[in-house]
Amino acid sequence: MHQYNDEYFMTQALREAKDAYADGEIPVGAVLVINNKIIVRAHNQVERLNDPTAHAEILAVTSACSYLGAKYLPDATLYVTIEPCHMCAGALYWSKLQRVVFGARDVKQGYHFFYGAKNPFHPKTEITNEILAEEGAQLMKDFFRERR
């Protein structure tokens, strides 16, 4: 089996973010990986679903739990293009992920805004950040620039 790395999976999450952008959604994308295999792809669908909780991370966790028939994901890694918000950090805490890997920091809505340096995820969850951060940040800048 081919071993992929964080950059590969983040590139896949960025593809999801670009799909969100094309749909008029805030461009955040996510993929959930178990055993080096993507089992879920998701992107923001707040506008499409008229649901403020339809963030990429929430949709990815919900889909993965449904697919696996489990409420916890201790063997999974979630790759998300932007730092999770306060709401998503709570959902990720309860899903007990093995790892959370994100791209760009979100200085206005990211979990650091609420938690500071404290880890908001499950104590066993490993955090890796700033993977392909510039690409995710640029998508966000372009998206909001177009709408102003």
Q: Which structural class do you get from the secondary structure elements? A: alpha/beta
The helical percent reads: 40-55%
Total strands: the figure is 5
**Major sheet, described briefly?**
5 strands, mixed
Q: Unreliable runs, pLDDT <50, ≥5 residues?
A: none
Q: What is the C-alpha radius of gyration, as a whole number of Å? A: 14 Å
SSE order: HEEHHEHEHEH
Global outline:
globular
Please, how many helices?
Answer: 6
Strand order of the largest sheet: 2-1-3-4-5
The termini sit apart by: 46 Å
How big a fraction of the residues is strand? 15-25%
Q: Average pLDDT value? A: 94
Description of the structure:
It is a single chain. The chain has 148 residues and is an alpha/beta fold. Helix content is 43%, strand content 20%. The protein has a 5-stranded mixed beta sheet with strand order 2-1-3-4-5.
Question: What structural keywords apply?
Answer:
alpha/beta, globular, 6 helices, five-stranded mixed beta sheet, 148 residues, 20% strand
Concise structural overview:
The protein has 148 residues and is α/β, with parallel strands linked by helices. Helices cover 43% and strands 20% of the residues.
